[in-house]
Amino acid sequence: AGEGSGTMPGDGTGSPAPERVLFPPTFSVSEIKNKQRRHFMFLRWKQQQRKEKLALKKKRKKEREALGDKAPPKAVPKTIENQRVYDETTVDPNDEEVAFDEATDEFAPYFNRQTVPKILITTSDRPRGRTVRFCEQLATVIPNSHVYYRRGLALKRIIPQCIARDFTDLIVINEDRKIPNGLVLSHLPDGPTAHFRMSSVRLRKEIKRKGKEPTEHVPEVILNNFTTRLGHSIGRMFAALFPHDPQFIGRQVATFHNQRDYIFFRFHRYIFKSEKKVGIQELGPRFTLKLRSLQKGTFDSKFGEYEWIHKRREMDTSRRKFHL
User: Coiled-coil segments, which residues (predicted)?
Assistant: First the structure.
């Protein structure tokens, strides 16, 4: 057969030739000088990579189906999370020292049901519209919370007034250029105080396919992946914001999910489609927190004693090391 007839050389069966490989094994897009050509070839190379990956996946699936019960177990993919560097402060639930600390720390009265959470949500001085709306929506998520707009009043003067009025926690939302960018959470009356950097704030109207306004039912609280002693303390701080007994009839759940030391907050409602199927509907708002410091006692920027401060150059030496 001729070279252009579409058959394999020396193959008398007339079967079509296999698809020609587009790129040699040592192909590098950066060698192409023309920018448009380089971009076009890069897209084609990515497309070929996807095809090869899909073909390999299908091949492995067929092999597993053919082997049946004798098929080897699926390989666990390597991720940054499961390759995490071991932290010696990881909490063991059966550790007596941990149990003693929990029984004697600042949150013990809450977990022993001696106090009922009462939260004051305030802002930096003279907040703008987006921060105000965020505080109002946060107050609908956390039961028994009250919003107060600061007008030049120092936090050191607010804290004694909060303690006198039986508030158990103080939340301060800071902003920069009209955008909420920080959160201070102080447990009253004895602390501790956590400083967070806040990002990716989305109000209710900015969330696609959101549900109706949340009801006044007490939500269920889910805390994920707070595994170290520091993470354990932060998780207890978040738990102490919500009353003990959630009203499951409201089908609302507040989630604090820690992943690579970023704390993602989401607020959902369960939607029961049938006896076996259940979906979730986001209600908002949503935001992401990154712990910057944990301070003993209530807020004191000058003379406060810090339990933990995030020092980026010293602590972030490995992408696989996490502190929470």
Answer: none
Tokens of 25: 């094994």
Q: Look at residue 218 and tell me if it is in a domain.
A: yes
H or E stretch at 230: helix 229-239
CATH code, 133? 3.40.50.10480
C-alpha–C-alpha distance, residues 225 and 324, integer Å: 8
**253 in the same domain as 125:** yes
38 & 159 share domain: no
pLDDT for residue 202: 93
pLDDT digits (tens, 9 = 90+) for 80-118: 888 888 887 888 877 788 888 888 888 999 999 999 999
- CA 168 from chain center: how many Å? 25
* Torsion sign (Cα): 205, 211, 215, 220: negative
129 pLDDT above the threshold of 80: yes
- In the block, which residue shows the tokens 């987006």? 130
pTM: 0.78
Distance CA 295, CA 266 (A): 26
- Going by pLDDT thresholds of 50, 70 and 90, the confidence category of residue 205 is very high
Give pLDDT, residue 13: 52
